[in-house]
Amino acid sequence: MDSLVYQIGLGANLSDRGRKPAETLVRALAGLAEAGVKIRAVSRFYRTPAYPPGSGPDFVNACATLETALAPQELLELLHRIEAELGRTRTHRWEARKVDLDLLAAGDLILPDAEVQSRWRGLAPERQAVEAPEVLILPHPRLQDRSFVLIPLADIAPGWRHPATGRTVAEMAAALPEAEKAQIRPVFAANSAE
To answer: Of all helices (H) and strands (E), which one includes residue 188?
Structure first.
């Protein structure tokens, strides 16, 4: 298989074994590189409010552009393996976590198909809290709604175009409410020390 270019989101809001959330994100990126995944770009790290509000301490979030010959499901499995190695456990949706690695997009692929992607993209907020898809859906169905994803993604891929909606990352980020964007604050670049 030829290489694919992927966008991923990284986040953490709990320390683990003395490792701060930002350090965990750096370690996750190192784990990807050690697995043979080429890291093409990494956004700045941002401090973002936990979602839903009151669900835990602020997160540190970032995005990265990757290149690999892994198929989307294989990359998702690698992301989950790295999460587990870094102490991630899954008990319920939208919980505080030591690390969260989300597969956001794979080039211009729509998975499993446009109809399913559209249905999950349009899922009502109250259903999002209790429903989770059983298959990999790309682009990530909440991508266009999340400032903690779009702001860092705009650092590294402002021109990436959502294959279902046709909107660029820059356009989606610009459409977010100003008050929401104001809560996303840069912490530091991935290759610098905090």
So the answer is: strand 185-189
**What global pTM score does this model have?**
0.90
The residue segments making up the domain with residue 161 are 4-189
Residue 194 lies in a domain: no
pLDDT confidence of 128, banded at 50, 70, 90? confident
CATH of the domain at 118: 3.30.70.560
Which residue among 19, 40, 47, 88 is the active-site one? 88
Residue 93 a catalytic site member:
no
Q: 186 is written with which tokens? A: 């840069």
Cβ atoms of 63 and 10 within 8 Å: the answer is yes
pLDDT tops 80 at residue 95 = no
Q: How far is CA 17 from the centre of its chain?
A: 23
Domains of the chain: total: 1
